[in-house]
Write a structure and sequence with these properties.
Blueprint lengths: L4 H21 L5 E6 L9 H15 L5 H14 L6 E6 L25 H7 L4 H16 L1
Antiparallel strand pairs: 1-2
Length: 144
């Protein structure tokens, strides 16, 4: 099922509101928010479901304070075979996302080249077809 830009933005707003609510209900807690990087208008497919399950399994092995949680999530994103498809945010008690740089990490790299991922996204450096072909290869290799 395809998702429209409006629906995607509404989903992000709803997720942000839920994050704020959870942080208010659990003062001083750490919030970890997992989403899957999936280009294009179809966000839920075999590849995104396998990727989400792999990320969840990797996360459930560890339960830590905010900065340590961010270090762990960066390590998972960088070392897991599907980690480049994970987007794991860690929020501090005030609801502010903790950056990779805050724990000594580097910005995320593009799936296809060595540029920063944000640079390639802003410049539309790669087609959705190229990205999906690479994602399919990653997931298929993972499940084999």
């Amino acid at each position: 099922m395809e998702i429209t830009l409006d629906a995607l933005l509404q989903s992000r707003d709803q997720r942000h509101a839920l994050q704020e609510q959870l942080l208010q209900q659990h003062p001083g807690g750490t919030l970890v928010c997992l989403t899957v990087v999936m280009p294009g208008s179809v966000k839920r497919n075999l590849y995104s479901v396998v990727t989400a399950q792999a990320a969840l399994t990797a996360l459930l092995d560890r339960h830590l304070p905010a900065l340590e949680a961010k270090r762990v999530t960066c390590d998972i994103e960088d070392s897991h075979p599907l980690g480049r498809l994970f987007d794991i945010d860690v929020m501090g008690a005030d609801g502010t996302p903790i950056s990779r740089q805050a724990v000594g990490g580097e910005p995320r790299r593009c799936l296809l080249c060595d540029h920063e991922a944000r640079w390639c996204m802003r410049n539309h450096s790669h087609s959705q077809e190229e990205l999906m072909a690479h994602i399919q290869k990653l997931v298929e290799t993972y499940v084999q």
